Structures are given as C-alpha cells and as structure tokens.
Amino acid sequence: MDIILKTDIAGLGYKNDLVIVKPGYGRNYLIPQGFAMMATESNKKVLAENLKQVAHKAEKIKTAASALAESIGELTLTIAAKAGESGKIFGRVTNTQISDALKAKGFDVDRKKITIDDAKTLGTYNALLDLHKEVKHGIKFTVVAD
Predict the structure, then answer these.
(1) 143 with 123: CB under 8 angstroms?
(2) Are residues 18 and 56 in the same domain?
C-alpha cells in the first residue's frame, strides 16, 4: 500500500515521503492518527505542487542544519551521573540530558532528534543528531561520576 507521510516517523520516513507499508498498518494506524494519507493520483499531484513551493524553504532549513552541524564540530560533552563503585551508573544517560548539555554549550537541538548508544557505565559514548533528513551529525559524550 502506498502512502504519503504527513509527519516524520522514525524508522519509516520523513514528511512528504512516498512509502510502501502493509495495508493494515496504513489503514488502521497511520491514516486514522493523521500521520499519513493515501497516495492517490490527486494526492500525488498535490504533493508535487507543494514540494515545488517549499523547495526554497527546505534548502534554507538544510543550510541551517549543515551550519549547526559544522558549528558543533567535534564537540565532546561531559555528562555527570551518579555511579556505584564498579563504574555502573544508576539509571542511564537519556537524550534529554544530551539536549540540555548541548543547550548549555549554546546549541539548541530537540531531544527527539537525538539517538544515543546505551550508556550504562562510566566512559565515552556516541550520539547521533538527526538535524535534517540529509544532515546527520555524530557527537561524543563522556559519562563521569557525579
């Protein structure tokens, strides 16, 4: 079943993408929730016209995301967490903590656009920032004892 996404959906696609999904997933979840619409010929024509109109805006957004990725560069964040004597932390490092650390450095990145490795012990880990559908940037963060 072909559908057109109305919003970004992790693991499936980005807004205005034409994707193929199983009919039950499309009809029972994506369309009723307002995340997608059927990819009929008329909807495809409307999508093509909308894409023409927003192409210029999209280029500006992509340029801004690229500039943000370059300004972040090879930044290494330090995240403080309570840890036991063996080096295992209580809880885990979340994408909210990464987002807050980036805000403290002057970079505003939404927590929903951050994917992190499973950080459960002290050490250095990687995080992926999904700044734009074509701009992804990796950063390192170090978990230290609080």
Answers:
(1) yes
(2) yes
Q: State whether 99 and 119 are in the same domain.
A: yes
Q: How many domains are contained in the chain?
A: 2
pTM above 0.85, yes or no: no
36 and 81 fall within a common domain: no
Q: Kindly state the tokens that stand for 58.
A: 């999209």
Domain that holds residue 33: 2-64
Please calculate the CA angle 82-85-87 and round it to the nearest 5 degrees.
65
Cα 121 to the chain's mean position, in Å?
Answer: 24
Residue 115: name the closest of 88, 96, 143, 89 by CA. 96
Please give the radius of gyration of the chain, using alpha carbons only, rounded to the nearest integer.
19
7-46 pLDDT per residue, tens: 999 899 999 999 999 999 999 999 999 999 999 999 999 9
Q: What is the model's pLDDT at position 134?
A: 87
Q: Let me know whether 43 and 84 are in one domain.
A: no
